[in-house]
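Dear colleagues,

I hope this message finds you well. In preparation for our joint manuscript, I am sending the NADH:flavin oxidoreductase/NADH oxidase (Hymenobacter negativus) sequence together with its predicted structure, so that both groups work from identical material. I would be grateful if you could confirm receipt.
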Amino acid sequence: MPKLFEPLALRGVTLKNRIVVSPMCQYSAQDGFANDWHLVHLGSRAVGGAGLIIQEATAVSPEGRISPEDLGIWKDEQVPMLRRINDFITAQGSVPGVQLAHAGRKASTYSPFTGSGEVPAAEGGWPVVGPSAEAFTDNYPQPEALDAAGIQKVITDFRSAAQRALAAGFQVIELHGAHGYLLHEFLSPLSNHRTDEYGGTFENRARLLLEVVAATREVWPEDLPLIVRISATDWTEGGWNADESVQLAALLKTRGVDLIDVSTGGNVPKAPIPVGPGYQVQFAERIKAEAGIRTGAVGLITTPIDAEAILANGQADLVLLAREFLREPYFPLFAAHDLGVEVEWPAQYERAKPRIASAAGQR
Ligand SMILES: Cc1cc2nc3c(=O)[nH]c(=O)nc-3n(C[C@H](O)[C@H](O)[C@H](O)COP(=O)(O)O)c2cc1C
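The corresponding structure tokens are as follows:
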């Protein structure tokens, strides 16, 4: 049995395979509310056989949105549509997860469909916050440094969002600690220049993330898994690095985190990132080996054979695919076929299930 189709139990939740839909902003919400687009987008990938579907960065507060069109989970009224989507995903045998997020100093920006950089107040933009009063780039908003009360609000917002996530039927929470958004901004010495207990040493820079994890775990049931996505490196001298990521992952393991989703970058504009097939897998491998925690690998994983090799080599426990899932919502069904594994197709599609062995990759 290929590893890709071995079930994985995380606490009380069993994923039917190791293939995960990586969180992907759709920039299609209004006032944070999910709609038919999200139902069909996420639902299609559940029909396509993914083991776990992590809904896009979903803001824990309105000011934590990347763009005005981001999904949100900051008010109870946003829950019922999410519940409907999750009920559908669950009925397909897939597990619904949500990425809870706060964009920090990278908030209030145009979606890629509408522009780039800061959305001004006149067009619906809002004041943004960060660890320090330093903008990401010249065309991003100038943030205000969070004070103690602001930090407490962030923690409370994540806790309330986790409660709503439960009400919405999500079975996995992923905290977004990557890509230069708020939690990553606190981790990295390149964006965090605070002199209080949230800045300076590794312990201080990691404090906010650890407090958010603790607040989330307070309300998130024991039998449901908690994942944290990190950027394992800023790919920049003097920035957050792989050694600190290993140290952080070991700490997170003791605080009730079950798996680290290992991405990189996003906190430094124009960082020299050696993008190529599987370019981030090395970090998932290192964290898994050295921190002794399960990991997910992501980044330019596009073929069943490569995905299988990552798992078979013991480099990660899950593989997350983003863009390949936009090209091919049925990736897991075809991967099963290519790897010679018998999986159930939705009864409605049964008549189209490939029955004759073909060369790998051939459809
Ligand atoms: C359209 C799009 C939206 C994305 N939105 C998010 C997001 O909401 N949260 C996140 O952590 N990463 C986001 N990403 C990054 C992906 O989850 C993934 O880490 C990255 O695309 C690399 O994987 P890939 O090579 O399989 O696309 C997004 C990527 C794409 C293409």
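For the figure legend, we might mention the following. Residues 22-25, 56-57, 99, 176, 178-179, 229, 263, 298-301, 321-324 surround flavin mononucleotide (CB under 6 Å). The domain at 3-352 is CATH 3.20.20.70 (TIM Barrel).

With kind regards,
E.M.
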